[in-house]
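Weekly modeling sync, notes
Attendees: S.R. (lead), two postdocs, one rotation student

Agenda item 3: backlog of single-chain predictions. S.R. asked that every request posted to the team notebook include the full sequence so nobody has to chase files. The rotation student volunteered to paste the first one in as an example of the format we agreed on. Action items at the bottom.

Example entry:
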Amino acid sequence: MQVDVKLDRVTVSGKVHDRISLLEFARQLGWTVKTSQDRVYAVLERLFDNDDSEVVAILAPNPYQQDSWRVDTSNHLNSDELRRVSSISNKLIGAHLTRVDVAFDFINGFYKPMKHIITRPKATQTAIFETEYRDASHCLQTLYSGRRSSDKMYRLYNKLDEQKRHGVAVSSKIERWERWEIQLRGKKTSDWVESAKEMLSQIKYPLYQDLKPADIAVLHAIDDGLISFKDFSKAKATRLRKLRSLGVGYNNDYARLAEQKLVESIDQINDEVSQFLDRL
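Predicted structure, as returned to the notebook:
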């Protein structure tokens, strides 16, 4: 199995005194200006050969902060996209980093993709917002843990299927490709290493060993999205959550390999952040 870690997305924020001029400038650069719920923003899209598209950058106002705008963009821009993004970010006054996304890729893993589960500490259960997306066969494609507006969110998804949907040519040698991402905002951006380690410690793969048959059946159904912890009494749900959290019946093979790769890549990613900000 190949394990990689990389900087995926960054967000730069700064002041804008004339949003109308900024949006018109973005339009001239090929950005698309849109309106949604009384909010005006702009997107830069990448077109694929199959006529599908992907948003590679967003220019939008920061809520509750007067005259504050942000550029949210991918770290994987081609030269033309980078020119269009940097031309906009250079218009931001006092530009500074407000978001960092770090991605872990597991290529040709030894487990079936999208079977890992996320366990968050019980103390924060009320703050957890978990969303999952499944295909027509009920196979999990994407799992989110945390709110998009929070300072920390996890995202697990089937990267191979995503690439195929966009019509991107993928090497025939890649049979499975799972990606884990952590999205950090605000003060969390400077603490990305410890936050990434924390995420890895909370992702586990179900093998259901050393469990009672009844618990295996229940946890299997929960992990497959057929039922939820809400279907049980508080006491039973707490006991089942504890089994998952402690790793009873679950293992962390991927997480251990990913943390090893993370430690090896810290300097490289810090350099990527600095270099990317310099280009902007």
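Discussion: group reviewed the output briefly. Confidence is low (pLDDT under 50) at residues 123-127.
Action items: rotation student to repeat for the remaining queue; S.R. to check formatting next week.
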